[in-house]
Amino acid sequence: MTTVLGWLGAMCFAACGVPQAWKCYQQGTAEGLSLWFMLLWLGGEGFYVAAILLEFGFIAWMMFNYAANFVCIMIMGRYYFWPRKGS
């Protein structure tokens, strides 16, 4: 049971930024998105990845989770700092 809960938590954590990243992409702006949200999320991801790597080493299937979150953060950051012209 704990394994299932762990998987569900990891999937939710991996997907939590996708809706916001998609909205930023569609609108061409991250207006209304808190910079602190992005910085804390990025910091949390960094610390979490470091802890996992130090404790368990490289686990390939977990790296997809981290990569997906990192991509979402980069998309939101791009539109936060460089919104599309005319948006």
UniProtKB/TrEMBL annotation:
GO terms for cellular component: membrane. The keyword Transcription does not apply. It is found in: Membrane. The chain crosses the membrane at residues 33-54, 61-81. Its main location: membrane. InterPro entries: PQ-loop_rpt (IPR006603). The keyword Membrane applies. Keywords: Membrane, Transmembrane, Transmembrane helix. It is a multi-pass membrane protein. This is Uncharacterized protein. It comes from marine sediment metagenome.
